[in-house]
Amino acid sequence: MPKGANGGIQLLLIHNVEHLGKQGDIVEVKSGYALNYLLPQGLATVATDHHKRMVEKHREKLRAIELEKLKSYRDMADELGKQSITIEANANDEGHLYGSVGAHEIVDALKGAGFTLAQDQIRLEGPLKELGLYTVKVHLHSEVDAALKVWVVPTVVTEEV
């Protein structure tokens, strides 16, 4: 395996890896990270001269694909910014919730609105424990975040007479 300047292994990233690099970048990582995570997950390959030449040849195509993805993420962020979701929760008379509203409930509510997101894309500063309006950060891409309005309202109880 090609060694880097700092004694690590040089890899070519096949996919974007957060906090490491973008697709097509040549990075140097410790051997354990390379052998136990990046290579088995298919996120990187060994940076041979052949692979480096291939990436240089296709860099424009990769850049165009990345720009297209970025545009779709920005469009989705605009759509999410226009959304306002409502989540019902049990609360006492002072507005404190008996439980809390977390990323799972927000993802479920977004699914009902036609958006499919993972729970780790919802960035809460803590669980929502009171009734009210919250602005929740949604992390779509390393360069794209969206702000989503989340209303936490009391559960409507219909009493039968």
TrEMBL record:
Keyword Transferase: no
Signal peptide bounds: none
UniProt keyword list: Ribonucleoprotein, Ribosomal protein, RNA-binding, rRNA-binding
GO CC, any one term: ribosome
Gene3D superfamilies: Ribosomal protein L9, C-terminal domain (3.10.430.100), Ribosomal protein L9, N-terminal domain (3.40.5.10)
Pfam families named in the record: Ribosomal_L9_C, Ribosomal_L9_N
PANTHER family linked to this entry: 50S RIBOSOMAL PROTEIN L9
Family (UniProt): Belongs to the bacterial ribosomal protein bL9 family.
Protein role: Binds to the 23S rRNA.
Protein name: Large ribosomal subunit protein bL9
UniProt organism field: Novipirellula rosea
